[in-house]
Amino acid sequence: MGIETHNQQRIHTYFFPFMAHGHMLPIVDMANLFASRGQHTTIVTTPLNAPEFSHTIQRTQESELRSYGIIVNSFYELEPAYADHYRNVLKRRAWHIGPVSLCNRDIEDKAKRGKKPAIDEHECLKWLDSKEPNSVIYISFGSIARFNSSQLREIALALVASGHQFVWVIRRLEDEKDEEGFLPDGFEKRMEGKGLIIREWAPQLLILDHRAVGAFLTHCGWNSTLEGICAGVPMVTWPVAAEQFYNEKFITHVLRTGVRVGARRWVGFQEGGGCDVGKEAIKKAICEVMEGEGAESIRNKAKALAAMARKAIEEGGSSYCDLNALIEEFGALKAAREARKDPSVECAK
Question: What start and end residues bound the annotated signal peptide (predicted)?
Answer without folding.
Answer: none
